[in-house]
Amino acid sequence: MSRPAKESTAPSFLSVAWSTGDSYCFTTYLVSQYASDRRTHHIGSNMDSAETSPPPLPDAPMLNSPPSQKSRKRGRGYWVKVAVRVVVLSLVVGGIWNTVSGAREEFAAQGFSPRNLNYRWLAAAGVLYLLGSFPACCFWRSTLVAMGQRPAWLQTIRAYYIGHLGKYVPGKALVVVLRTGLIKGNRVDATVAATSVFVETLTMMAVGAVVAATILAIGFRHQVLLLLLAIGLAAAAGIPTLPPIFRRVVRLLQVRRANPAIDAAIEGLDFRLMFTGWLMMSVGWLLMGLSLWATLKATPAAVDQLTNPGVDIPLITACAGLAMVAGFLSLIPAGLGPREWVIITLLVPVYGPVAGIVSAVLLRLVWMTAEVIFAGVLYFGVSGEPAGPAKMTV
After folding, report:
1. H helices of 220-337, where?
2. Can you tell me the distance from the alpha carbon of 145 to that of 272, in angstroms, rounded to the nearest whole number?
3. How far apart are the C-alpha atoms of 154 and 152, rounded to whole Å?
């Protein structure tokens, strides 16, 4: 006798995710449904054909029915967000273009050429960037463990660094999909993995913004606009990661419909975990600041001006943190535009237009090259499966 099919709750969850453009809802739905389909297929492999038939698709009228007034409002909200992003990106591109145009004469006067760059310092900048990302990787694993999972170290590192490549796709949702797809298995549940990515990423952005705001408030108060921007970004990224708030958000999004075990998993998120994460990521942001400092050292125009590490490194660390956070929260692929604007705004007045502009471009190239090379090494050199099975508690 075949068992009655479980009523599907996917349509409401998927419709909310799609209509609002919420990458968390949509990617969590995708990975959890994928995991659910795999479990259903596995359980039903020993049953008759009637019981192993795939779950029914959502009723057509639910997907094709005329949009409600609420859906239309969400649709308008989506296009408003798109319009705002276009305006912001246009302003940022315009500001960068004006700065670059005004620096053309100085570029020519100093005879700048890529052949004059110090590639040893650029290699050091790439290594420092990868090292600076490692504390965030450790925090991600700690978050998974706190949520009842048992991720293997090598597979965690592999999934984390390969997942970085997803940020070059619009919306950045592919970061969640890549990491989840690479880490899920008998040790890690897919829905929990997707949720943990948001905890780690938002915490990293919050710490970067707070580090930048603190440094600017202490030593560079004249940068009022950037200071206010750092404070705003810290609030935007940090408040949702407070454990009680994050748990409430997950419940409001009704992720439990995709995986009922998620409520038990998020109970493992506490302030002790977040405090540990903030300490680890503070070290990571310092290393990323040193990566930008090494990039400047590779630029002949800046070498003679990097004479006071006590002033240079804090400013450059604030610059690296604020640039990366602004680029991330802009949702523009790889933060193209906002990141360069922050770097140019902070560094050009101190180190000159040539050093400021060149370092902004070089930093993107160095970080992207380091990510691609290391991701390739991990993808082809490290197995995607852990050495042995482990029981998962969620």
Report:
1. 224-238, 243-252, 262-266, 271-297, 300-303, 309-329
2. 13
3. 6
Domain boundaries, the chain: 10-72, 91-381
Angle at 351 between CA 345 and CA 354, to 5 degrees: 80
Q: In terms of Cα–Cα distance, which of 122, 194, 129 is closest to 159?
A: 194
**C-alpha atoms less than 13 angstroms from C-alpha of 89 in its C-beta half-sphere:** 15
Whether the CB-CB separation of 187 and 152 falls below 8 Å is answered with yes
Encoding tokens for residue 52? 């192993």
* 3-state secondary structure (DSSP) of residue 48: coil
Q: Give me the phi and psi of 113, to 5 degrees please.
A: -150, 140
**pLDDT tens-place string over residues 110-126:** 556 777 889 999 999 99
Quick one: 79 exposed, middle or buried, by C-beta within 10 A (0-12, 13-18, 19+)?
exposed
The predicted-structure confidence for 42-71, as pLDDT tens digits, reads as follows 444 444 444 444 444 444 444 444 555 655
Check residue 152 and give left, alpha or beta (phi > 0: left; psi -120 to 50: alpha): beta
Report pTM.
Answer: 0.74
